[in-house]
């Protein structure tokens, strides 16, 4: 029982998804239609991308990139720009949660090389802005976050059409981030002569250049992206990734977020069962239709945007509206995007950061960005 409670506390979203699937099975008993609920393509491609990105992380690629860029700047503003826009741009490829797992600890390390006064003043602000950057940058591409991958798979649009849809929001987000950095960080007016980043013996071993592994990861990423774009069937990258990991890099399999995959599977079952409850299905469909964006934003605040995307996709065919709504819905509460909890976990472990103040600053920043982007959506809708 103690282990069960620890699991539920650690994997609260997965636990809720499992409970919903089990409860729905009381009304719709398991039968031959259950396997058809699962979107195997989304699960397979997501598994491939998580594994490949884990490979690049193990090679130290992202840390090396960050250090190379930081070597070119010596001011607080410059350091903040590098750390924030690394999250913004790389989240488009490696997802928002991986960007934060990679760069928030790196940011904390960099901040500890600053003098204490600067560290106490800017650590919280930079981590908050990084979290925003990861959630905002990831909305630009079909592979930037899990709900985009899922919803893109449901749509008939091309990757170019997806990029065109989200480009205005991404562009304005980038401008807002730059302005926020200038307002929050540049106000110090004080140069920070950056201490050279120390590379530990362990990091040296990670960064030992291995052309074969880099080539393998790049090839697997390319094949996975072809599957995202529907040029290759998903079985091909899945087979290639499994063969490579089992033969050469089994440790990468430990880095995959299986709880996320399990959450998807459980929610697929829940939504599939709801779809077979005609009265419930019709009621939810009436509630969602014509209000997809706002419904997705509101739902995301309480259940996070990934479950919201899966839930609402069962009751509307307006996939573009759901993409916009769930991406913007990642802003707001701390759980609106589960990736935000990653930053919070790291920040809460730092004595320079008070958790109460972090939540206040985080919420204010999120609300400001959300209101601006909602205004942009309204303007685009009126001109369309």
Automatic annotation (TrEMBL):
GO BP terms, alphabetized: transmembrane transport
Source organism superkingdom: Bacteria
Cell compartments where the protein resides: Membrane
Annotated ranges, domain Citrate transporter-like: 6-312
Signal peptide: none
Alphabetic keyword roster: Membrane, Transmembrane, Transmembrane helix, Transport
Protein known as: Citrate transporter
Source organism of this protein record: Roseburia porci
Lineage of source species: Bacteria, Bacillati, Bacillota, Clostridia, Lachnospirales
């Amino acid at each position: 029982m103690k282990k069960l409670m620890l699991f539920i506390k650690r994997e609260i979203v997965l636990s809720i998804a499992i409970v919903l699937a089990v409860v729905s099975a009381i009304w719709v008993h398991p039968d031959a239609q259950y396997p058809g609920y699962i979107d195997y393509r989304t699960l397979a491609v997501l598994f491939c991308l998580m594994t490949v990105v884990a490979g690049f992380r193990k090679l130290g690629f992202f840390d090396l990139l960050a250090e190379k860029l930081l070597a070119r700047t010596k001011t607080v503003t410059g350091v903040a720009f590098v750390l924030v826009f690394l999250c913004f741009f790389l989240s488009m490829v490696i997802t928002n949660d991986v960007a934060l797992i990679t760069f928030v600890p790196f940011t904390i390390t960099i901040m500890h090389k600053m003098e204490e006064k600067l560290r106490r003043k800017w650590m919280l602000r930079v981590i908050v802005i990084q979290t925003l950057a990861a959630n905002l940058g990831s909305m630009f591409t079909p592979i930037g976050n899990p709900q985009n991958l899922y919803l893109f798979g449901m749509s008939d649009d091309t990757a170019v059409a997806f990029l065109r849809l989200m480009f205005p929001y991404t562009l304005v987000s980038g401008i807002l981030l730059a302005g926020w950095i200038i307002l929050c960080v540049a106000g110090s007016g004080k140069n920070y002569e950056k201490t050279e980043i120390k590379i530990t013996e362990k990091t040296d071993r990670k960064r030992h250049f291995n052309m074969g592994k880099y080539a393998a990861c790049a090839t697997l990423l390319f094949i996975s992206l072809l599957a995202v774009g529907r040029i290759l069937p998903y079985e091909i990258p899945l087979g290639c990734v499994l063969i490579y990991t089992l033969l050469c890099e089994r440790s990468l399999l430990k880095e995959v977020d299986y709880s996320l995959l399990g959450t998807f599977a459980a929610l697929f079952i829940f939504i599939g069962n709801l779809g077979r409850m005609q009265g419930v299905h019709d009621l939810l469909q009436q509630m969602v239709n014509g209000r997809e964006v706002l419904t997705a934003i509101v739902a995301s605040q309480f259940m996070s945007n990934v479950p919201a995307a899966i839930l609402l996709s069962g009751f509307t065919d307006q996939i573009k509206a759901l993409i916009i709504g769930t991406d913007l819905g990642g802003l707001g509460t701390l759980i609106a995007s589960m990736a935000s909890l990653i930053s919070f976990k790291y920040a809460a472990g730092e004595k320079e950061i008070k958790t109460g103040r972090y939540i206040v600053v985080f919420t204010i920043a999120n609300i400001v960005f959300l209101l601006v982007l909602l205004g942009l959506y309204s303007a685009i809708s009126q001109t369309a």
